[in-house]
Fold this protein.
Amino acid sequence: MTGGPLTGRTVVVTRARAQAGPLVEALERLGARVLELPAIEIVDPPDWGPFDAALARLDSYDWVVFTSVNAFERATGHARVRGVDLVARISGRAAPRAAAIGMSTAIRMTGAGVTVNLVADEPTAEGLVATLADVGIQGATVLLPRALEAREALPEGLRQAGARVDVAPVYRTIASGADPAPVVAALREGTVDFVTLLSARTARAFVTALGLPDGERAALLARMRPVVIGPVTAAAVEKLGFAPAIEAPDASTAGIVAAVVEATEDSAP
């Protein structure tokens, strides 16, 4: 599209290739030039044992808490392989209640048929702890399917609030091995405007994937505006040397695109 609000802007999308399509298409429809550099690849955890054990005693939990769309999809997908309909089990009257860290995760869960009983007031681990504490978590048992490499703020915060928490990794992330040459070339030409970095882990992987010498890397990163989700990721990317972060309202395609469009309009002469 020519004449859209993002015409003349270049956006680097770092989502895993299998998940990037809707975001790439939405940005291109608004006129952006999109360069893809998947920073990470999502793979199985080294051990499914903790999650399999949790599935076997699912009815003993008061809450099942999902911190990302990836966690929800990986948990439900693996449960299905094991012959367990996790969606049905967390949507019945006597089932554990379901919580989501943010609206994009809640929307995905609802679309799959889950009754989402709680969404964090602020889409961070700390915000989810606070929201759960407000409804009463003392003595509750919580299942937390999540990434292997996730921060400990959520399980530690829930335990401090009096909950018993079982952490069950349902995926891990590895470097994707994607070719960085087109993105590096655009950075050196000074034509990259924004880069989507939806977690600190993705941001670190992206910087590593560029393979740039320290001095050049610092200069080039400072030219890009990172689009992030939440203050934790914003702080992390700024420590890496990026320009001040733009915080999207959530991790949905619509939220990310809206943030890029707003930042573009704000910078217009």
Remarks:
- The chain has a mean pLDDT of 91.
- The chain is about 45% helix and 20% strand.
